[in-house]
Design brief:
The protein is an alpha+beta fold. It is built from 6 helices and 11 strands. The strands form 2 sheets. Strands 1, 2, 3, 4, 5, 6, 7, 10 and 11 form a 9-stranded mixed beta sheet that branches. A two-stranded antiparallel sheet has the order 8-9.
């Protein structure tokens, strides 16, 4: 029930953000929910990336960051979303725009997704993607601030097999490390490429 409650709150928050974009005509987007001037700073956090280096709020400064939260054992939405993010980058014609973007895959399954596993996983989709994770107490300040719901279920002590529920949104963080918007599922690479080009060029 708790994950359902969090998911409902995230959904309500999504509607609120849609209202913001509907009342802000300064940038025309096809799929992204855009916070505009209502973008808000991320909390302090510290994850470990797939090179076992710290990934903090300060790490996100200077570029546009697209972040997807999932796990490497995910059978469908995670690989599909990462492939879509790679296809999005390939669909951007302007190298200045693509060079302004970074893609992160943040695992909400830290017990199984160690740095070496994350490195192999994200590099399969794109060698420039960054994987990261942390223990739950370190992950939650970030995921809660973004409205990302996640929970481990069907876990039996001693068994490596279990499921992880998680939100399917791709979060957009601006070069000031502020939560600037998101792309709700389903994701379309060509549409995302056009939206990200407009966002980067507008700003």
């Amino acid at each position: 029930m708790r994950i359902v409650a969090v998911a409902v709150l995230a959904l309500v928050f999504g509607f609120a953000m849609s209202w913001v974009i509907s009342n802000n005509r300064s940038i025309e987007l096809e799929a992204a929910t855009w916070l505009g001037e209502q973008a808000r700073a991320l909390p302090e956090f510290e994850l470990r990336d797939h090179n076992d280096q710290p990934l903090t709020r300060e790490s996100l400064n200077g570029k546009w960051n697209l972040i997807f939260f999932g796990y490497t054992h995910c059978p469908d939405i995670c690989p599909t979303s990462l492939q879509t993010l790679n296809d999005m980058l390939q669909a951007i014609d302007d190298p200045d725009v693509s060079n302004a973007l970074r893609v992160y895959f943040v695992s909400v399954d830290p017990d199984r997704d160690k740095p070496g596993i994350l490195a192999s996983y994200v590099s399969y989709f794109n060698p420039d993607f960054t994987g990261a994770t942390a223990q739950m107490d370190q992950l939650q300040p970030l995921t809660r601030s973004l409205g990302i719901a996640h929970a481990i279920r069907n876990r039996v002590e001693g068994s490596p097999a279990y499921d992880v529920d998680h939100s399917a949104a791709i979060v957009l963080v601006n070069p000031q490390a502020e939560f600037a918007g998101l792309f709700g599922a389903p994701h379309d690479a060509a549409v995302m490429a056009r939206d990200m080009t407009r966002i980067v060029e507008y700003n």
